[in-house]
């Protein structure tokens, strides 16, 4: 039973994925070059793990890294509504320029909750870097903090995608590309 045999359709290959990460990192490097204090990059566990690691290693600036965990999805493909922060940051964000790194923005509930949390802790700006965005499913608009920007890798059609950190029922995160499962595996 091979991993690839579970995939119906590849949306972005490994090469396309990493090329886009390289471009995002160059843009972020340019945008933050003139900011005097090192920015803080916060990865949203677990989905953003691989994107986060690939992204920050391509950014040519001194920076700090930390993680948060927010739970908004159960084991299936539907949101359970209000997300909660189940692992908070280790570092102090007060006065920091923070870049929140997410795998995918869907309804926007998770990011809105995390942005509000960082703003309440005194971040001086909050930017978003999401590998995928599904704007067609947005329920809550993304409100950035200060002069924060919204970086995105690709717009995603309305499929439940897996791979490059994204799971279905905690499987398929290790797929090195992004795809859609065969229907019999969404069970
Ligand atoms: P939101 O709060 O924006 O509705 O959802 C955010 C989280 O839901 C994402 O960070 C991701 O973990 C999960 N999610 C949303 N869409 C997808 C998808 O197509 N595939 C996977 N695997 N997870 C998704
Ligand atoms: Mg996520
Ligand atoms: Mg998930």
From TrEMBL:
This is Hypoxanthine phosphoribosyltransferase. It catalyses: IMP + diphosphate = hypoxanthine + 5-phospho-alpha-D-ribose 1-diphosphate. It comes from the Eukaryota. One of its GO terms (molecular function) is hypoxanthine phosphoribosyltransferase activity. Its EC number is 2.4.2.8. GO terms for biological process: GMP salvage; guanine salvage; hypoxanthine metabolic process; IMP salvage; purine ribonucleoside salvage. It is an enzyme of class 2 (transferase). Residues 16-168 form the Phosphoribosyltransferase domain. Its main location: cytoplasm. It is found in: Cytoplasm. PANTHER family: HYPOXANTHINE PHOSPHORIBOSYLTRANSFERASE, HYPOXANTHINE-GUANINE PHOSPHORIBOSYLTRANSFERASE. Pfam families: Pribosyltran. Pathway: Purine metabolism; IMP biosynthesis via salvage pathway; IMP from hypoxanthine: step 1/1. Its cofactor is Mg(2+). GO terms for cellular component: cytosol.
């Amino acid at each position: 039973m091979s991993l690839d045999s579970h995939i119906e359709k590849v949306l972005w290959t490994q090469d396309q994925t990493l090329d886009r990460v390289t471009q995002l990192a160059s843009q972020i490097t340019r945008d933050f070059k003139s900011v005097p204090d090192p920015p803080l990059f916060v990865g949203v566990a677990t989905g953003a793990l691989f994107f986060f690691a690939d992204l920050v290693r391509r950014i040519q600036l001194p920076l700090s890294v930390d993680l948060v965990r927010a739970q908004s999805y159960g084991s299936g493909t539907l949101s359970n509504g209000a997300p909660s922060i189940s692992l908070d940051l280790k570092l102090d964000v007060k006065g920091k320029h923070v870049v929140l790194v997410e795998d995918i923005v869907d309804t926007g509930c998770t990011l809105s909750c995390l942005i509000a949390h960082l703003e309440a802790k005194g971040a001086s700006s909050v930017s978003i870097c999401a590998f995928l965005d599904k704007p067609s499913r947005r329920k809550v608009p993304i409100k950035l903090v200060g002069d924060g920007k919204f970086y995105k890798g690709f717009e995603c059609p309305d499929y439940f995608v897996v791979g490059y950190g994204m799971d279905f029922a905690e499987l398929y995160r290790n797929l090195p590309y992004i795809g859609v499962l065969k229907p019999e595996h969404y069970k």
